[in-house]
Design brief:
mainly alpha; Rossmann fold; Tyrosyl-Transfer RNA Synthetase; 2 domains; binds tryptophan
Length: 351
């Protein structure tokens, strides 16, 4: 009796929590921008919400990646997310292709998605420009699959960046169309972030966002070795120093301070802030060389444990597989419940 009570209590709290879902594309290595832009927030959400995080390997097929590389990337992304603090006991961490229910929902949603609207999406148009030789139907219906990812768990909060707003708007449209035609089935999902805290991390040359594909020397990856981290930070762009006290910081200098704010102690940041503000032409107090040396050491302290934990996990494939299977079990429980309702609504059940 008491035990049942506890189980029911657990189920109720899990049900009362709002559902959060996000997908991670398994392309390349994760970097500091991913950590502070996404993963850190996921880790915070895992205590507050009922969370589903998954690796979007079906989405990757739209660009025909190498099979072996794709498999390695999927496991690495899982390992790196856990190393950053995602707890597979608290969230459902799974691989998209382990949940076939998503594919069936994708099929139904495809009947409600129109060629015209799909062709108009920015991501599709970008891809057509970038890979005109491979404009496949999967690419066209990418937003439909994304909608299925979200709606299969009836998620309402989707932690994503600005570039995903359009895909989310389409997910809402498909959900509304479904509800209108077949009866109220899906809640409408919205982008969600701890807004005030979304930090923008630029490359170490101060040019644009830190990214996977641009110059590798200006991006700090979570898998970088200590020496490489030091080398990259020491090469970061600086200048001769401020010409007047309390100057406005150029982007590339502000970025170094931002990074320091994330990985160094408050005292350290304050010292260099003061040095900067007290500097002027002919009286340059701030030494960017020293600042970068300090930042490099603090960055090593920050990345090193994540890198090691991710590497340990990647060397323990049995454990990794166990984790994603457990994640898939949780995800399929939720997904099959939704799909049962959907099949009935669409008239696919004859019983
Ligand atoms: N399209 C997302 C991206 O490019 C990845 C993604 C796939 C996703 N399915 C999702 C994000 C569902 C949020 C919800 O990063």
């Amino acid at each position: 009796m008491a035990k049942n009570g506890i189980v029911i209590h657990y189920l109720r709290t899990a049900m009362e929590k709002e559902i959060v879902l996000s997908g991670i594309r398994p392309t390349g290595f994760l970097h500091l921008g991913n950590y502070f832009g996404a993963m850190r927030n996921y880790v915070r959400m895992q205590d507050e919400f009922n969370c589903y995080f998954f690796v979007a390997n079906w989405h990757s097929l739209t660009t025909h990646p190498d099979t072996k590389t794709l498999q390695e990337s999927v496991l690495r992304v899982v390992a790196e997310n856990i190393a950053c603090g995602l707890d597979p006991e608290k969230v459902s961490l799974y691989v998209q292709s382990d949940v076939p229910e998503i594919a069936e929902l994708y099929l139904y949603l495809n009947m409600l998605a129109y060629k015209g609207e799909l062709e108009k999406t920015t991501t599709f148009k970008d891809k057509v420009r970038m890979q005109p030789e491979n404009v496949n139907a999967g690419l066209l219906t990418y937003p439909v699959l994304q909608a299925a990812d979200i709606l299969i768990h009836r998620a309402v909060k989707v932690p994503v960046g600005k570039d995903q707003e359009q895909n989310l708007e389409m997910a809402r449209n498909f959900a509304e169309r479904f509800n209108h035609r077949y009866g109220e089935t899906f809640p409408l999902p919205y982008a969600f972030n701890y807004n005030s805290e979304l930090v923008k991390i630029m490359g170490l040359d101060g040019n644009g966002k830190m990214s996977k594909s641009e110059n590798q020397m200006t991006t700090l990856f979570l898998a970088d070795e200590d020496e490489l981290i030091r080398k990259k930070v020491m090469k970061a762009k600086t200048d001769q120093g401020p010409l007047t006290p309390n100057s406005v910081k150029p982007d590339y200098i502000q970025n170094l301070f931002t990074l320091m704010g994330l990985v160094s102690s408050a005292d350290t940041v304050k010292k260099f802030e003061d040095d900067f503000n007290n500097s002027s032409d002919g009286n340059c107090i701030i030494r960017y060389g020293d600042m970068k040396k300090q930042l490099a050491e603090d960055m090593v302290q920050f990345i090193n444990p994540i890198r090691n934990k991710a590497a340990d996990l990647q060397n323990n494939k049995d454990l990794l597989l166990k984790i994603i299977h457990q994640g898939a079990d949780k995800a399929r429980t939720s997904a099959s419940a939704t799909l049962t309702t959907v099949r009935k609504a669409v008239g696919m059940e004859y019983l």
